[in-house]
Specification:
Strand content: 15-25%
Strand order of the largest sheet: 2-1-4-3
Structural class: alpha+beta
Shape: elongated
Distance between the termini: 14 Å
Largest sheet: 4 strands, mixed
Oligomer: single chain
């Protein structure tokens, strides 16, 4: 059974990819930097059953890694500094779908979309 995305869901997906690009995340379709028409191809249905699948490429982020190490250290500080650190952590955590675990200290670098064939 093939489920089609609603018009709203398609729009949210494409806007999300554009926002990633604006933040410096490289989006590639079939090995080339994606333009608007390339991104729209990602949502097409193909008669042969193929579809596009994304691979997310992460890289170490020194600032995020330092914050992860720092969060493991208990200390007392001025509440203003703690508030600033918390807001910086929130921004860093947005680059990771889990905000913790194996992606801690990493940021999204590239998304590679390639056509795969379902058999």
């Amino acid at each position: 059974m093939v489920r089609k995305l609603s018009r709203r869901s398609r729009k949210v997906f494409l806007e999300g990819l554009r926002r990633y690009q604006e933040r410096g995340v490289r989006v590639l379709v079939d090995g080339k930097d994606a333009g608007q028409e390339d991104m729209e191809r990602l949502l097409m249905e193909y008669e042969d059953g193929s579809f596009y699948m994304g691979d997310y490429i992460w890289e170490e982020c020194r600032v995020a890694a330092a914050m992860v190490r720092e969060s493991r250290t208990a200390y007392t500080a001025d509440p203003k500094i703690l508030t600033d650190l918390a807001s910086t952590r929130a921004v860093t955590d947005q680059t990771s779908p889990t905000g913790a675990g194996s992606l801690a200290g990493k940021r999204l670098k590239e998304i590679h979309f390639d056509r795969v064939y379902y058999r």
